[in-house]
């Protein structure tokens, strides 16, 4: 059986790639950012639906799995109902209302790690209460890409859920389950930053003289510190006159949407005094080589920083498909 999924808050389609790699088929997507939509259409020959708040459940085709990398927002808790209505006024509410209306067999959610402590823990409490009220068994994990084979220091919140009537449990849960979902185990790096670097790169990626000067202010001190490893490439980021961060452990700093606000927020390959290219950043996010994105634009860097690590999502999706097929085979 081929499971059908919808790709909400789709960005540039990282979650879609991960699920389709594991045999699912995306039947509809939604994204509001104009430039992300352009990139999505280039790669998938499909224009996402726009504003999720204007999408009615009836206009979506039949689907089995809902996926969403929704933004982290505070909930208004004036009513203290501790249920579905507490989510109203946020974009998570739109995820919840579509789940409520269409009752997919499973969902996959992604967010920043800060969602766990956001608003003093109230945000995660509302999300958990709503998902439980909607009739789903779920668990979430904070996972760092560098612990799962990808050389990027990127911690994210991943939540997997199944409709309770399927009786799919999670490792460590007690109950009469038909299948158990296992989150992936940590593993060694499959490659390092040096392995994703291109040799011939346009001079348009060279940093400014000001950026180079700011790097040089701090580089000698770093090279004298025990953190410096000359066997790996040296990467600089957060480059300012007042500070500069370095890494030489083979792992990239977190690629963030701030890369879209200017060159000093894009990691720099110090030996060549150039920014990492979009292609190199995509590799650090686990995107396949066929993926296309406009070169040397701030919008492209922002889109990459806002995306997901495809490698990790693929691990999670693979296990979701495995347990769903196991349960289906018993019917």
Describe the structure.
The protein is of the alpha/beta class. The protein has two domains: 210 residues, Vaccinia Virus protein VP39 (Rossmann fold, 3-Layer(aba) Sandwich), CATH 3.40.50.150; 113 residues, DNA Methylase, Chain A, domain 2 (Alpha-Beta Complex), CATH 3.90.120. It contains eight helices and twelve strands. The strands form three sheets. Strands 2-1-3-4-6-5 form a six-stranded mixed sheet, sandwiched between helices. The two termini are 13 Å apart. Its EC number is 2.1.1.37. It catalyses: a 2'-deoxycytidine in DNA + S-adenosyl-L-methionine = a 5-methyl-2'-deoxycytidine in DNA + S-adenosyl-L-homocysteine + H(+). It holds the Pfam family DNA_methylase.
Write the layout of secondary structure elements.
Blueprint lengths: L3 E5 L5 H8 L3 E5 L4 H11 L20 E4 L22 H12 L3 E7 L9 H12 L2 E9 L10 E9 L4 E3 L8 E3 L27 H15 L11 E3 L7 E3 L20 E2 L4 E2 L2 H7 L13 H8 L4 H21 L1
Parallel strand pairs: 1-2, 1-3, 3-4, 7-8
Antiparallel strand pairs: 4-6, 5-6, 9-10, 9-11, 11-12
- State the CATH architecture of the largest domain: 3-Layer(aba) Sandwich
CATH class identity of the largest domain = Alpha Beta
Mean model confidence by pLDDT: 92
Order of helices and strands: EHEHEHEHEEEEHEEEEHHH
Strand content: 15-25%
Total number of domains: 2
Family: Belongs to the class I-like SAM-binding methyltransferase superfamily. C5-methyltransferase family.
Keywords: Methyltransferase, Restriction system, S-adenosyl-L-methionine, Transferase
Protein name: Cytosine-specific methyltransferase
InterPro entries: C5-MTase, C5_DNA_meth_AS, C5_MeTfrase, SAM-dependent_MTases_sf
């Amino acid at each position: 059986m081929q499971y059908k999924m919808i790709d909400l808050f789709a960005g540039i389609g990282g979650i879609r790639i991960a699920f389709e790699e594991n045999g699912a088929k995306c039947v509809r997507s939604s994204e509001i950012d104009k430039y992300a939509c352009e990139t999505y259409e280039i790669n998938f020959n499909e224009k996402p639906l726009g504003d999720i708040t204007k999408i009615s459940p009836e206009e979506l085709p039949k689907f089995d799995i809902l996926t969403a990398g929704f933004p982290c927002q505070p909930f208004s808790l004036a009513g203290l109902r501790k249920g579905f209505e507490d989510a109203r006024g946020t974009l998570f509410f739109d995820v919840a209302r579509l789940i409520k209306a269409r009752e997919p067999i499973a969902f996959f959610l992604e967010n920043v790690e800060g969602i766990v402590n956001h608003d003093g823990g109230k945000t995660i409490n509302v999300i958990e209460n709503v998902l439980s009220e909607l009739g789903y068994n779920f668990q979430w994990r904070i996972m760092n890409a560098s612990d799962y084979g990808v050389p990027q220091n990127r911690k994210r919140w991943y939540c997997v859920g199944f409709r309770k009537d399927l009786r799919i449990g999670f490792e460590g849960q007690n109950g009469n389950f038909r299948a158990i979902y296992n989150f992936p185990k940590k593993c060694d790096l499959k490659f390092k930053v040096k392995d994703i670097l291109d040799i011939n790169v346009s001079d348009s990626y060279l940093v400014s003289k000001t950026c180079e000067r700011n790097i040089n202010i701090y580089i000698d001190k770093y090279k004298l510190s025990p953190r410096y490893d000359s066997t790996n490439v040296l990467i600089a980021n957060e480059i300012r006159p007042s500070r500069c961060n370095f890494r030489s452990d083979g792992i990239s700093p977190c690629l963030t949407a701030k890369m879209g606000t200017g060159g000093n927020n894009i990691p720099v390959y110090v030996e060549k005094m150039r920014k990492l290219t979009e292609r190199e950043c995509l590799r650090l996010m686990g995107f396949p080589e066929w993926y296309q994105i406009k070169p040397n634009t701030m919008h492209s860097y922002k889109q990459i920083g806002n995306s997901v690590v495809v490698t990790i999502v693929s691990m999670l999706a693979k296990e979701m498909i495995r347990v769903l097929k196991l349960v289906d085979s018993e019917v």
